[in-house]
Design a protein that fits this description.
By secondary structure, the chain is an all-alpha fold. It has a single domain, classed as Na+/H+ antiporter like fold, CATH 1.20.1530. It has 17 helices and no strands. It has helices at residues 3-11, 13-26, 37-52, 56-64, 66-76, 79-90, 95-105, 112-120, 124-150, 158-182, 184-190, 194-212, 214-220, 222-247, 250-261, 265-275, 283-308. The longest helix is centred in the middle third of the chain and has 27 residues, at 124-150.
């Protein structure tokens, strides 16, 4: 397939997620077959794809631009988790949905933020470095923040969350980085396909969860939608404002805004399914999150791309 077509299909990511989610609400069996271990394996493939795009040198950027990387990661694990916790109370969400909101807000930045950064013509290298660092830290930060902020609502197995994060995030990324280093020719053949494969699996994961939680989503109605939309719109806004206060650089602030506003929603879904099996509602905010952060980020990318090309 020509590279230009691959890029166009990948860039249509928000359209695929939105369309599949709507179809899943209308007729859930279209996507609910993608469930159980298929979701876990799907996320593993996504993270492996992220790994093969990374090199050891990417992590060395941390030492060249430590202030910006540190700023992005700190905002990722402060602004978003506390927004998730606050909005659960503001919109009076049922406990499982409120926990799901905290869980996805405590996840690291996703690979989609790197794609959006590219489309917005901001600092892709900074985006990749922040995503890599926040993903590595997710092994500790995601379980800790979820247990701390949501533990009063329902029982949270922090140790189980830690082991799940280690297995579905760190292991595939390490394998991918090693493949990129020692199997260069093989990874170069797969590299152009990695973003599109990630888009396909994210779409399947999101649509599956939306379909399986159809009744609960309809029942929760505007409160759930408003809470998830507010989480991401405020994340983008506060990420940009705080970055501007600290570094006062337009391109870097926009890059940090994208990284803070976008979460690894697929990871949230897998962690919810594996660690809250008696509360399937926990996964629903994570699935809806993917729809909203993709749509908001795509609008920002279109606006910022035009401004940056002036």
């Amino acid at each position: 397939m020509p590279h230009s077509i691959l890029v166009k299909l990948t860039n249509a990511f928000p359209l695929w997620v939105l369309s599949a989610s709507v179809l899943s609400l209308i007729y859930p069996p279209l996507f609910t077959w993608f469930s159980g271990q298929l979701i876990t394996w799907g996320l593993g493939i996504i993270m492996l794809g992220m790994g093969i795009t990374l090199r050891i040198e990417d992590f060395q950027r941390v030492f060249r631009i430590p202030r910006l990387v540190l700023l992005g990661v700190v905002l990722q694990y402060t602004v978003m988790p506390f927004l998730g916790w606050s909005l659960g109370y503001v919109f009076n969400l049922p406990n499982p949905l409120a926990v799901g909101l905290v869980l996805v807000a405590s996840c690291p930045g996703g690979t989609a933020s790197n794609v959006i950064s590219y489309l917005a013509r901001v600092d892709v290298a900074l985006s990749v470095t922040m995503t890599a660092c926040s993903t590595i830290l997710a092994v500790v930060m995601t379980p800790f923040l979820t247990a701390w902020l949501a533990g009063s609502r329902i029982e949270v197995d922090a140790w189980g969350l830690l082991l799940s994060t280690l297995r579905v995030v760190i292991v595939p990324i390490i394998i991918g980085v090693l493949m990129n280093r020692y199997m260069k020719k093989t990874t170069e053949r797969f590299l152009p396909w990695a973003p599109l494969v990630a888009v396909i699996f994210i779409t399947l994961i999101v649509a599956s969860i939306v379909g399986s939680g159809r009744e609960e989503i309809i029942k929760a109605g505007w409160r759930l939608i408003a809470a998830v939309f507010s989480l991401h719109s405020c994340g983008f806004l506060l990420g940009y404002v705080f970055a501007q206060i600290v570094c006062r650089q337009k391109i870097e602030s926009r890059t940090i805004s994208i990284e803070v506003g976008m979460q690894n929603s697929g990871l949230g879904v897998v962690l919810a399914k594996e660690n809250f099996p008696t509360n399937p509602l926990v996964a629903i905010p994570c699935a809806i999150s993917s729809v909203f952060h993709s749509l908001i980020a795509s609008v920002l990318a279109a606006v910022w791309r035009k401004d940056n090309l002036k």
